[in-house]
């Protein structure tokens, strides 16, 4: 019996030891997510700052995990049905000439700034995106009525691809309404 408990303890210790490595590898910092979102909001005069929602973060993480397990880290929106908004980000692995595959360094700053860069393609006067361009990630970030955000990410172990998910409440991007 002692041998069984010892084996379980060793297995549990090994499993728990891998958790901090993944956390540091992914650099999922909620404070940075909020700060970068609020930077984009401030640029357009949205004074209402977002707060981080642990509930949304759990949901976003569950969706990222689902995409990792069932969709090989490829992006696919969940079905929020207006209950929350959602932005997705995908990152490939770094492939070296010797065949090594490494995790690309991606930070919350890079993720949110990539969505925010769509600002260049948003025409506020017409309240739409330039022809052939996408700007819905940006407008969700700066949506005045949105109060909270939660984010998660997952890494596909075999390909080292990443999928990042942020969810927002209340949802933004309502047709015919301006974000701010």
Characteristics:
disordered N terminus; 4-stranded mixed beta sheet; single chain; two-stranded antiparallel sheet; alpha+beta; globular; 180 residues
Provide a concise account of the structure shown.
With 180 residues, the protein is an alpha+beta fold. It is built from 5 helices and 8 strands.
Low-confidence stretches: 2-26
Shape: globular
Average pLDDT figure: 88
C-alpha Rg, in Å? Answer: 19 Å
How widely separated are the two ends? Answer: 65 Å
Q: What is the SS-derived class?
A: alpha+beta
Helix content: 40-55%
Strand order of the largest sheet: 1-7-8-2
* Tally of alpha and pi helices: 5
| Biggest sheet descriptor | 4 strands, mixed
Following the backbone from N to C, one meets helices and strands in this order, namely HHEHEEEHEEHEE
Notes on the protein architecture:
The chain has 180 residues and is an alpha+beta fold. The protein is 40% helix and 18% strand. It contains five helices and eight strands; from the N terminus they run H-H-E-H-E-E-E-H-E-E-H-E-E. The chain has helices at residues 2-26, 30-43, 54-71, 108-116, 136-141; strands at 51-52, 85-91, 94-95, 101-102, 122-123, 128-129, 148-155, 162-169. The strands form three sheets. Strands 1-7-8-2 form a four-stranded mixed β-sheet. A two-stranded antiparallel ribbon has the order 3-4. Strand 7 and strand 8 (162-169) form a beta hairpin.
């Amino acid at each position: 019996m002692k041998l069984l408990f010892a084996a379980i303890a060793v297995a549990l210790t090994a499993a728990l030891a891998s958790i901090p490595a993944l956390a540091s590898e992914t650099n999922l910092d909620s404070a940075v997510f909020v700060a970068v979102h609020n930077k984009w909001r401030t640029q357009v005069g949205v004074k209402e700052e977002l707060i981080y929602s642990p509930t949304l973060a759990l949901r976003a993480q569950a969706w990222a995990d689902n995409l990792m397990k069932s969709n090989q880290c490829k992006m696919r929106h969940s079905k929020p049905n207006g209950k929350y908004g959602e932005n997705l980000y995908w990152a490939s692995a770094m492939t070296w000439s010797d065949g090594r595959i490494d995790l690309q360094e991606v930070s919350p700053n890079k993720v949110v700034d990539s969505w925010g860069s769509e600002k260049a393609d948003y025409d506020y006067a017409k309240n739409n995106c330039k022809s052939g361009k996408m700007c819905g990630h940006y407008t969700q970030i700066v949506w005045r009525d949105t109060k909270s955000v939660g984010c998660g990410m997952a890494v596909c172990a075999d390909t080292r691809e990443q999928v990042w998910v942020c969810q927002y409440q209340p949802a933004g991007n309502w047709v015919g309404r301006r974000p701010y």
